[in-house]
Design brief:
The chain is about 40% helix and about 25% strand. The chain is α+β, with helices and mostly antiparallel strands. Helix 1 packs across helix 3. It binds coenzyme A.
C-alpha cells in the first residue's frame, strides 16, 4: 500500500465493517474499531511494525490485509461484490510469502470465524469481548512437509484399511 492509497483503503474497511461487523457490535466496539481505521494511523503503523497489502481489480482497491510484526492479522477486508472469489485467500498467501510466516494469530470477528477456519486457522478459545470488540482468538500454523507426508500416509493407510465394496 502506498501512503496515497490509505484513504481509499480506510473507506473500504469502514464500508465493509459497517455492513458485516458493526451490526454484531455494541456502540463502544464500533467506536473503538473506527479509532483504529484512519488513514493517518494506517500510514503511521505501516512505517512502524505493520504492513498492508491490497488487492486491486481494474485499478480499484477491492481488498486489504494489515499484518503486525509479520505474525498477526490486524485487518482483513474484501468488498462485498468481490467476496467468495478467493481474494482473502490470495492476500493471505501473499503475506505468508512476504514474511515467510510460520505462525499467524488473528482476533477474528465472530462472523469471520468460519472463513478463517477455511483458511486453515483454528480457534484458541471461546469468544471474548474487549472494549466492546467481540472476537475469537485463532491461530494458523504452517504445515511442514513432514505433516503433509504424514497426512498423506494416514489417508493411504485408511484407504488400505477400508473394506472393498
Ligand atoms: C472475511 C473476508 C475478508 C473473506 O474474504 P473473501 O475474499 O470473501 O474470502 P475467500 O473468497 O478468499 O474465501 C476464503 C475461504 O472462506 C470461504 N468463505 C468465504 N466466505 C464465506 C462465508 N460467508 N461463509 C463460509 N465460508 C466462506 C471460501 O469458500 C474459502 O474457502 P475455500 O477456498 O475452502 O472454498 C470477507 O468475508 C469480509 O470482508 N468479511 C467482512 C469483514 C470481516 O469480518 N473481516 C474479518 C475481520 S477479523
Amino acid at each position: 500500500m502506498r501512503p496515497d492509497e490509505a484513504a481509499a483503503v480506510c473507506r473500504l474497511v469502514e464500508n465493509v465493517f459497517n455492513e458485516f461487523v458493526a451490526p454484531t457490535y455494541v456502540p463502544e466496539g464500533i467506536r473503538e474499531f473506527m479509532k483504529y481505521v484512519t488513514p493517518e494511523k494506517l500510514i503511521k503503523r505501516s512505517e512502524e511494525n505493520h504492513s498492508t497489502v491490497i488487492a486491486e481489480s481494474y485499478g480499484r482497491i477491492v481488498g486489504m490485509v494489515e499484518m503486525r510484526n509479520g505474525d498477526h492479522i490486524s485487518l482483513l477486508f474484501v468488498e462485498p461484490r468481490e467476496q467468495k472469489r478467493g481474494i482473502a485467500r490470495g492476500l493471505m498467501q501473499r503475506v505468508i510469502a512476504l514474511h515467510n510466516c510460520q505462525h499467524i494469530t488473528v482476533n477474528s470477528s465472530p462472523n469471520a470465524e468460519p472463513i478463517y477456519t477455511r483458511l486453515g486457522f483454528t480457534a484458541d478459545g471461546p469468544e471474548q469481548t474487549t472494549h466492546g470488540i467481540r472476537f475469537v482468538p485463532m491461530t494458523w500454523t504452517r504445515r511442514t512437509k513432514r505433516d503433509s507426508v504424514n497426512q498423506a500416509s494416514q489417508v493411504m493407510a485408511r484407504k488400505l484399511a477400508e473394506p472393498e465394496r
